[in-house]
Amino acid sequence: MAHGAGGKASRRLIEGLFAPLLYGSSAEPLGDAAHLNLNGARVAITTDGFVVKPLSFPGGSIGELAINGTVNDLAVSGARAEVLVVTFVLEAGLPTEILQAEIQVMAAAAREAGVRIAGGDTKVVEHGKADGMYITTTGVGTPIAGVEIDPASVRPGDKVLLSGPIGDHGITILLARGELDLEADLCSDTRSVLPFVEALARVAAPSIRWMRDPTRGGVATSLNELARDCGLGVVLHEDAIPVRDTVRGACELLGLDPLHIANEGQFLAVLGAEAAEAALEGLRQIPGGEEARIIGEMQKQPAGAVLVTTRYGGTRIVDMLVGDPLPRIC
Amino acid sequence: MKYVDEFRSPELIGKTAEEIRRLADPHRHYRLMEVCGGHTHAIYRFGLKDILPANIELIHGPGCPVCVLPMGRIDDGLSIAARAGVIFAAFGDMMRVPGTQGSPLEHKARGMDVRIVYSPSDAIKLAKANPQKHVMFFAIGFETTAPSTALTLQRARKEGLRNFSVFCNHVTIIPAIRAILDSPDMRLDGFIGPGHVSTVIGCRPYEWIAQNENKPIVVSGFEPLDLLQSIVMLLRQLRAGEAKVENQYKRVVPWEGNRAALRAMADVFQLRPYFEWRGLGFISQSALRLREEYSEWDAEKRFDVPGIRVTDPKAAQCGEVLKGVLKPAQCKLFGNECTPERPVGALMVSSEGSCAAYYNYEHRKAALVTSISASV
């Protein structure tokens, strides 16, 4: 299970097994989408499988995740999603209303994100398998003008931008499972980040070095991957990282670190310092971008690692997530 | 979060850190043990070591429940759960702790019915929802979690719940502190006393530490300011040549403890004559088992338990680290054979275990600092 949690085990699985056998080379940094040149046309392609329990939760459902997740993977690779194809794996006996509701939600999310659904496939598996439904979406996109994502272009002094508060999605899911006798007024943050990425590109395209949507494994895992890929250190200011009080409270209670919690509607970007102010201005002008912050910067040290400076002068290293975040009780 | 923020105020923390520097004798080296794993975790998470002067050394104590659990107990528990129709229920803390054949999570991946619960009463809910199955709650923890197990057992008995049992691994903190003080290689100046445990047992049980061992102990909260204030209180005592029990965590810990919780524990549990602690060996009267009246809910009586004993890997020095004799990074396996992903010793599993805390928050930092100074 840890191999799917987005942390170290996932990375080992991809780099150790999939990449060498399937792509021929594992030396390429593992991005969110592949950019290809097909007969002179540049396209980006990505695919993502969605499994979530429960299927719907405050603020969203598996259908929305399936559309937004793939649109977002393309967006942070510097591409605008144009076309999606969808595969459903359905559990026998899934109520039609649930399926219908998900299809409606997906259609709405696709309209919102400005992406066309061009086709798909459906399989049905035995009752008791597939947790109701699994959805896989594959997306093809076109490059956003002027945006080149490359961890090797990241330099010391570059700024780390975060689009908004973290941890909403992961904590919402944890609470929605109903296993904890905890309730909170909290919604998943699932949304398309494309409008924000495009806004950023309008004001700062040449200064964008790297982007990522910090889904499973959270901000800590995404930034550790960046640190490893570019060989520099990421230094974060704990104070500057936006976390809602409810998320912070739940994390305190359960012994979790918000930096390890999944997000579905945020992205991280590394920008040349010269563009930081303009980038924040640009993002804050669109609804939902008001809480964007510069949360840290790239430095030579600690090379290959992420360091958080606490509010009172202490520091700590934040590693990738190991396995799923498990609540600590005793 | 307002209540927490007050204890994380940079101004107050700065002032308290200054007070510590003023009180600490620069010619003296202080060795203070934080007994509780929650403190260890907080110290690393908030980077408190960066704030303290170099001559104040914090030694990590044995107060991490999964860390002190011998591997044989995990094997025993899993051997019960391997029977048809048994659900193994435990806190998330337990899920990655390795037995000889793998952790509960790994057993789950191989098909065992393993569930994470957030309280023992959730295990009762699970039993009621699965009347055809037997739910075994694998109970761990010090006096912090023992009362909730006791209340759950009282409820199970009252309701006559038949498909539920507890595999009891509850331990008590005082004998562990005694074992550490009896260890000849320990030279401690004082203790940061456990906060959560003390909400149940109160402060009185520590009086012998002050009176007989002549060591100060301050029961502390878990926020940065709590820990720094406790260090101030310890330094004041040391400076005055005193050894007292003090309570820094008054907002939560009553001096007399929680009588209702203690009553529930006394009703359900009795002391075992001895119990094995990982790294510390057998300690007499250091753990709890269910009383005769609760035999029907006692997994050890209800099922045939193999009583597996597993010696820790020879190269692993969990015992020395647990007693504070060695720093985590001084263990031969640390960071190479033993990491949070593939833990050999339990101290590497729980984020409250000193090895995992050190690994996650500190050791790469230490390595980086070395590489920086080497490259200058």
Annotated CATH architecture of the largest domain in chain A: Alpha-Beta Complex
Uncertain residue segments of chain A: none
Shape of chain B: globular
Calculate the mean pLDDT score of chain A and round it: 90
Number of self-contained structural domains of chain A: 2
Side by side, the strands of the main sheet of chain B go 2-1-7-8-9
Structural class of chain A: alpha+beta
Any idea what the radius of gyration of chain A is? 19 Å
Largest interface: A-B, 37 and 50 residues
Looking at CATH, the homologous superfamily of the largest domain in chain B is: HypD, alpha/beta domain 1
Strand content of chain B: 15-25%
Number of beta-strand segments of chain B = 13
Helix coverage percent of chain A? 25-40%
The CATH class label of the largest domain in chain A is: Alpha Beta
Rg of chain B (C-alpha, Å): 21 Å
* Shape, per Cα inertia axes of chain A: globular
Return the structural class of chain B: alpha/beta
Distance between the termini of chain B: 43 Å
Query: Sheet with the most strands of chain A?
Result: 7 strands, mixed
Summarize this structure as a short list of keywords or feature phrases.
heterodimer, A: 330 residues, alpha+beta, 60s Ribosomal Protein L30, Chain: A, Phosphoribosyl-aminoimidazole Synthetase, Chain A, domain 2, 2 domains, 7-stranded mixed beta sheet, 5-stranded mixed beta sheet, B: 376 residues, alpha/beta, Rossmann fold, 3 domains, 5-stranded parallel beta sheet, 4-stranded parallel beta sheet, 15 helices, 13 strands, 40% helix, 15% strand, disordered C terminus
Overview of the structural elements:
- The complex is a heterodimer of chains A (330) and B (376).
- With 330 residues, chain A is of the alpha+beta class.
- Chain A folds into two domains: 31-143, 60s Ribosomal Protein L30, Chain: A; 151-317, PurM-like C-terminal domain (Phosphoribosyl-aminoimidazole Synthetase, Chain A, domain 2, Alpha-Beta Complex).
- Helix content of chain A is 31%, strand content 26%.
- Chain A has helices spanning 8-23, 62-76, 96-113, 168-176, 194-204, 218-230, 245-254, 276-284; strands at 34-38, 41-50, 56-57, 60-61, 79-91, 116-125, 133-143, 159-162, 208-212, 233-237, 268-271, 293-299, 306-309, 315-317.
- A seven-stranded mixed beta sheet of chain A has the order 9-11-8-12-10-13-14. A five-stranded mixed beta sheet of chain A has the order 1-2-7-5-6, with helices on one face.
- The longest helix of chain A is centred in the first third of the chain and has 18 residues, at 96-113.
- The radius of gyration of chain A is 19 Å and the shape is globular.
- In chain A, 50% of the residues are buried.
- Chain B has 376 residues and is of the alpha/beta class.
- Chain B has three domains: 2-65 and 173-247, HypD, alpha/beta domain 1 (Rossmann fold, 3-Layer(aba) Sandwich), CATH 3.40.50; 71-170 and 272-302, HypD, alpha/beta domain 2 (Rossmann fold, 3-Layer(aba) Sandwich), CATH 3.40.50; 318-375.
- Chain B has helices at 2-5, 10-23, 37-45, 71-81, 104-109, 120-129, 146-159, 173-182, 195-201, 207-211, 224-240, 259-268, 299-302, 318-323, 354-375; strands spanning 30-36, 56-63, 86-90, 114-116, 134-139, 164-168, 190-193, 217-219, 245-247, 269-271, 274-277, 281-284, 288-290.
- In chain B, the strands form four sheets. Chain B has a five-stranded parallel beta sheet with strand order 2-1-7-8-9. In chain B, strands 4-3-5-6 form a four-stranded parallel beta sheet, with helices on both faces. In chain B, strands 10-13 form a two-stranded antiparallel ribbon.
- In chain B, α5 links the parallel β3 (86-90) and β4.
- The longest helix of chain B has 22 residues, at 354-375.
- Mean pLDDT of chain B is 90; it is low at 370-376.
- The chains are: A alpha+beta (330), B alpha/beta (376).
- Chain A binds chain B through residues 1-2, 8-9, 179-181, 233, 245, 248-249, 252, 255, 257, 301-303, 305, 307, 309-319, 322-323, 326-330, and chain B through 1, 4, 8, 10, 13-14, 17, 41, 44-51, 65-66, 91-93, 95-96, 105, 108-109, 116-119, 122, 140-142, 144-145, 224, 340-341, 350-352, 360-362, 364-365, 368, 371-372.
